[in-house]
Amino acid sequence: MSETGISYVDAVWNPIVGCSHISPACDNCWAEVMAKRMSGMGVPGYSNVVDKDGHWTGPALMSEDRIHQLSHWQKPRRVFVCSMADLFHERIPYWWQELVLDEMGMVRQHTYLLLTKRPAVMRDRLAEYCRNRNLDAVPSNWWLGVTAENQAMADERIPLLLQAPAAVRWVSVEPCLESIDLRHLHYQGGITEIDALAGTHGLLRPHGGECERLDWVVVGAESGPGRRPFDVAWAADLNHQCQEAGVACFLKQASGLRPGVPLLIDGQVIHEWPEAQQNATLAGEGRDAE
To answer: Are 254 and 219 in contact (CB under 8 A)?
Structure first.
């Protein structure tokens, strides 16, 4: 586990590394670039996940010591799980996921952020995990999220996320590649319209009903020399949607040559947390050494 430049977490934990491209968000994958660098430096495990050209070849399970790193930090932290992989990659066997989830279940003081581009796998594997562990839902300190870089991915992934057994659900709109409306998601070929912020859906309108809703929206632009166009108005609109619905919004970064350029709306930094986090005392207020 290590410190990180990801502004909404305190640390990253990578018991599994490696991935593969699945959607437009992957086109300038920073994790792939980092994996190539780590492989070139001879860091154990990384030579197994990229080829000689530095492209992903798939996921690999790291050492037992890496898996058990969580217990080394006693003070509570927000931990990004598998920042160098997708824990719910279709080529990751269930028993690998069990190792990771069981470790998270044993080290309970942290808040764990899981982010996937494969929400159907996440939904089904976590439902299986809950059945096997006699749980109604995953622990409340496990925040389940999906990447939604454009409207098509929001339409496809967020409804599946809302079906996952979670206490906190979030979406990472990063890299934000276009204007996105979270209030009108068209799921399953447009048959069902979902407002993911209000938690309502219209099935063959005007009939309607209730569903789960998002608890948190993170928005960020791409960085680096090959970054794609970004309009601050897209972020401002997402923040407005969240404000109207009473959903927390975190504006992560603006477009820039290097990561970490502040994303400001009317000159303001907007770093909001879901209700589950509002009163939590987390590290950053005195970090202990590894």
So the answer is: no
Kindly list the distances between the CA atom of residue 40 and the CA atoms of 28, 36, 76, in Å, as whole numbers in the listed order: 19, 6, 33
Q: Determine the Cα–Cα distance for residues 136 and 157; give it in Å rounded to an integer.
A: 22
Neighbours of 106 (CB within 10 A): 10
**pLDDT (tens digit, 9 = 90+) per residue, 122-168?**
999 999 999 999 999 999 999 999 999 999 999 999 999 999 989 89
Whole-Å CA distances, 143 to 161, 162, 241, 277: 11, 12, 21, 10
Say yes or no to pLDDT of 13 above 50.
Answer: yes
Q: What is the pLDDT of residues 18-35, one digit of tens each?
A: 999 999 999 999 999 999
Tell which phi-psi region holds residue 230, choosing left (phi > 0), alpha (psi between -120 and 50) or beta.
beta
Domain limits of the chain?
Answer: 11-277
* pTM of structure: 0.92
- Six token digits for residue 34: 């980092």
Contact 248, 223 (CB under 8 A): no
Strand partners, 69: none
Task: Place 288 in a pLDDT band, splitting at 50, 70 and 90.
Answer: very low
Closest by CA position to 222, among listed 191, 183, 190, 176: 176
